[in-house]
């Protein structure tokens, strides 16, 4: 599995960077193996870690920039993702993190390392059989676009189109580099994020409708791109609809074993994320929470997303 994107799939690649977009400190990671923070923006595993376990790849997907990365792990997959990144390279620049273009460049470096380890032929086979897992876009809309363009509907749609064009270009580059199996993760209901409820003034009991519409619009365009990609020769592609499953969990938490879906489990749960969560008090049972902080999901929600994806969308690319 080769992973690209933002904090939703970054296992700690930002730890070595001079950026505030880090999670390599408590209370992050308390539910991960060993109970230690790794840089993952969750209390435990990410969707990619859980999926790797389900597929028999390993118990987690390590970061390509992990100083403890073992040569053998290159054979099973790595993540190039960087928290604070997005499909728009300008988004990453704001936080001094790895842009999507940077991540593609590291894919090239990965392939060189893989060839030296396994030989050219075996390396190409591994890449062609790998799952290219892509999860980004929330940071683009949440931190780069929405603060300055909330009311410009035409600009919103134009920016979405730009992002989709970036996704299409990156995907074609990945195909040229050997990618044949792709999973794209859609945007969540961004208007339901605790930080959005707080900053846009809806309060803890109501999602911000217009922001959710923006995310839903983007997802329709991304799904259309996935359908086009499916028609490419020798290519398989799937779309994970996190918007729907998170909306269901938000409106009917009891059905998913959750009790809190409007606040994170760090500090007040309304605005804290990353550095502002450092050392803050947390709840005693994260499995009852949808959000780890004011933006990112708990391991429990990541499990729900993964199980739903396996059942409803991604199974077809492994047939």
TrEMBL record:
CDD domains in the record: SGNH_plant_lipase_like (cd01837)
Species this chain originates from: Panicum hallii var. hallii
Gene3D superfamilies in the cross-refs: SGNH hydrolase (3.40.50.1110)
UniProt family annotation: Belongs to the 'GDSL' lipolytic enzyme family.
The protein's name: GDSL esterase/lipase
Any one GO molecular-function label of the UniProt entry: hydrolase activity, acting on ester bonds
InterPro entries: GDSL (IPR001087), GDSL_lipolytic_enzyme (IPR050592), SGNH_hydro_sf (IPR036514), SGNH_plant_lipase-like (IPR035669)
Superkingdom field: Eukaryota
């Amino acid at each position: 599995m080769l992973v690209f994107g933002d904090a939703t799939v970054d296992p700690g690649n930002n730890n070595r960077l001079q950026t505030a977009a880090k999670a390599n400190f408590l209370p992050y990671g308390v539910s991960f193996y060993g109970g230690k923070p790794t840089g993952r923006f969750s209390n435990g595993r990410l969707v990619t870690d859980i999926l790797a376990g389900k597929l028999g790849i390993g118990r987690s997907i390590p970061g390509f920039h992990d100083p403890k990365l073992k040569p053998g792990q290159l054979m099973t997959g790595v993540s190039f993702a960087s928290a604070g990144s997005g499909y728009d390279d300008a988004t990453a620049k704001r936080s001094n993190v790895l842009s999507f273009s940077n991540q593609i460049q590291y894919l090239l470096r990965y392939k060189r390392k893989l060839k030296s380890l396994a030989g050219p032929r075996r390396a190409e086979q591994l890449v062609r059989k790998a799952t290219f897992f892509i999860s980004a876009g929330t940071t683009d809309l949440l931190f780069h676009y929405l603060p300055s363009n909330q009311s410009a509907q035409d600009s919103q749609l134009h920016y979405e189109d730009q992002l989709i064009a970036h996704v299409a270009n990156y995907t074609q580059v990945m195909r040229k580099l050997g990618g044949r199996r792709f999973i794209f993760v859609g945007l969540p209901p961004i208007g339901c994020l605790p930080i959005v409820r707080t900053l846009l003034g809806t309060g803890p009991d109501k999602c911000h409708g217009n922001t959710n519409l923006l995310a839903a619009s983007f997802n329709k365009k991304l799904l259309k791109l996935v359908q086009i990609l499916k028609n490419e020769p020798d290519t398989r592609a799937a779309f994970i609809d996190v918007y729907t499953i998170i909306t269901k969990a938000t409106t009917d938490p009891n059905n998913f074993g959750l009790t809190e879906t409007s606040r994170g489990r760090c500090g007040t749960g309304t605005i804290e994320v990353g550095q502002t969560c450092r050392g803050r008090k947390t709840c005693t049972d994260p499995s009852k929470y949808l959000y780890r902080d004011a933006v990112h999901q708990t391991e429990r929600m990541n499990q729900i997303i993964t199980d739903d994806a396996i059942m409803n969308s991604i199974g077809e690319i492994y047939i």
